Amino acid sequence: MVQSLFSGQQKRIELMQPHANDQHNNALEAFGRLLAIMGELREQCPWDRKQTMESLRHLTIEETYELSEAILEGEMEEIKKELGDVLLHIVFYASIAAEGGAFTISEVIHSLCEKLIYRHPHIYANEKVEGADGVKRNWEKLKLKENPSRSVLGGVPHALPSLIKAMRVQEKVSKVGLDWLGNSEVWPELEQKMGRLPKEMKPDNGKFAQKGEAEEALGDLLFSLVNYARHIDINPEEALERANKEFIRKFQAVEQKVTQKGEQLTQLSTEELREYWEDGQKG
Known about the structure:
Layout: H1 2-5, H2 10-14, H3 18-44, H4 46-50, H5 53-73, H6 76-99, H7 105-118, H8 121-124, H9 131-146, H10 162-175, H11 183-199, H12 211-231, H13 236-260, H14 270-282
């Protein structure tokens, strides 16, 4: 069964070097083994039998975040392990669907292959595109052609974290031509948003005059920061996560120093904590 999934690529594989051909055959064997094990687990394991798509959903989200963390850490062994966990979930969902007569893993893979071929006409047809950006623009245009009534932003999940969602929204509209021309336009926009926020504050006590207006101003500033990061080719989600990790590392070092001196964090004054923090920055 697994062999048939890849039969359409057989001629191409035969033209490859023996090493590449061996990798392909090993992949077929490994995937077939995984499908067989999944089938056995669904038949014989009480926990696996009990699972539904709904019960797996939150676990899949957790596994995806674990993969993301492993990628940021650059730990290849962990990445390999987490990729396996994500692959397991894909096969799990497809097995549940097949049991209900909805679709099979073969249909999932064939559908993906057809989509990849259709959306890469510069590889599988005679269309010309300019560089990676041209490929991305063409990809979005082909998606709209498949479903003309669908919004350009229709593919952005509502449940995405806000920072990632802002980046994806900006990327998608840029692919259809709505974008700033470059950093020379983006930075003034960012400065304008930064200038707006203080105007929403009371000068006497530093409190916001209207929380709703201040929230809107801060949201505009964050959205513009994401836009600027995109234009200088920085992923804001990854940048913020690295900042989170660095802050956690530094704060935990402060906790360790406080403990080593026989003190308790909660009993220190703000000034004393700042001294510990500043000493840590010097180190």
